[in-house]
Amino acid sequence: MSRTNTNPRPSPRLAGTPRALVLVGYGLNCDWETAYALELAGAKAERVHINRLILGDERGGRVRLDDYQILAFGGGFSWADDHGAGVLLATRLLYNIGEEILAFIEAGKLVIAICNGFQAVVNLGLLPGFNGDYRSRRVALIGNDCGNFRDQWVHLSVNLRSPCVFTRGVERLELTVRHGQGKLFAERKVIEDLVENNQVVLRYADRDGRPAGGRFPDNPNGSLEDIAGICDPTGRVFGLMPHPEAFHHWTNHPDWTRQKEGYRRRRQPYPEEGLGIRIFRNAVEFFN
Fold first, then answer.
1. DSSP letter for each residue of 162-212
2. Strands 70-73 and 110-114
3. Active-site residue (options: 155, 243, 248, 253)
4. Catalytic residue among 30, 115, 164, 231
C-alpha cells in the first residue's frame, strides 16, 4: 500500500454542474451550512452519511465516491473527539474506503476539509501530501495553547503564491473559528517544507493583515508560524481550521450593521454575499 503520484492527472472538465459530497454522521454538525454554501457557489451538493459510503442502506444503496467531483469534510465533533479530534473518523474511513479516497484525489478532483474535517485528513495523511504521499501522518492539530475552546472571528492573510485552488484571487479573509484543538504542530523540518513549498495557504493575522506572530487572540490557538490552513502540492486538497461556510451571507458577520453604514456613506453597494463563498465558488469554477 504505497501509492504515490507526483504527476496527478489534469482536472476533469464537466459539461454540467459539479457534484459535491458533504460528509454527514456521528457528531459532524456543519453539513447543512457546508452544503448550502456549495449550492450558493453553483455546485449540486448532497449530504451523505458515512455509512452510505461504506455500507449502503436499505433505502438508497451504497454511494460511490467516484460519482462526485468535490468531497467536503465538514466541521463538528465526530465521535465526540474521543481518542482525539478526527481520529475515529479518519480510522473508519481509512480501513473501509481509503483506496477510494486516494483514487478520488488522483483523478484530479477536489477535497476541502474544515475544522474537524481538517483534523481528520491530517490523521488520514491526505495532508500535507509531500511528494504525492497521501498516507503518511506528518502534521497534528492539538489542544489550543489558551487551554480552552475558542469561538471567535479571526483575520487571515492568504498566500498568493500558493497553488491552492480554493483561494485563487483571494488576498485576505475574515472568518470564524470554533475549536478546542486547532493548534497546527509538526516537526520543524515539516513546517519548513510547508513554507518553502508554499503549501501554507492561510495564516492568522491582525486587523491590518500583519502576521499574528503567535499572539493571542489574533492567533487563537498557538499554531506554529500562525498557520490556519494548508494544501497539498497540487493545490486540490485544502484543509483549514476557520469556517468559510459560516460566512455565506453578509449578516453572518458580527459587525455587519456598522459595515453596511460605511458602505452607505461611501455610496457603494453592500456585497450581500459573505467572503466565505469565494472559497467554494473557486472550487466550482475549477471544473468549468
1. ---GGGTT--EEEEEEEESS-EEE--HHHHHHHHHTT-EEEEEE-TTS-B-
2. parallel
3. 243
4. 115
How far is 2 from 135, CA to CA, in rounded Å?
8
DSSP of 148-174: S-EEEEEEEEE-TT---GGGTT--EEE
Structure pTM?
Answer: 0.93
Q: Which three cell numbers stand for residue 186?
A: 509538526
Residue ranges covered by each domain of the chain: 19-286
pLDDT at 111 (0 to 100): 98
- Residues 93 and 112: their CA atoms lie apart, in Å, by 16
Helix/strand number for the chain, H first, E second: 7, 11
**Predicted local confidence at residue 62, as pLDDT:** 80
CA distance 41 to 201: 21
Q: Which of 33, 174, 225, 245 is catalytic?
A: 245
Which CATH architecture describes the domain 19-286?
3-Layer(aba) Sandwich (3.40)
Q: Which three cell numbers stand for residue 154?
A: 479571526
pLDDT-flagged residues of the chain (< 50): 1-8
Under 8 Å between Cβ of 38 and 253: no
Q: Give the per-residue pLDDT at 235.
A: 98
Residue 115 designated active-site: yes
What's the confidence (pLDDT) of residue 55?
86
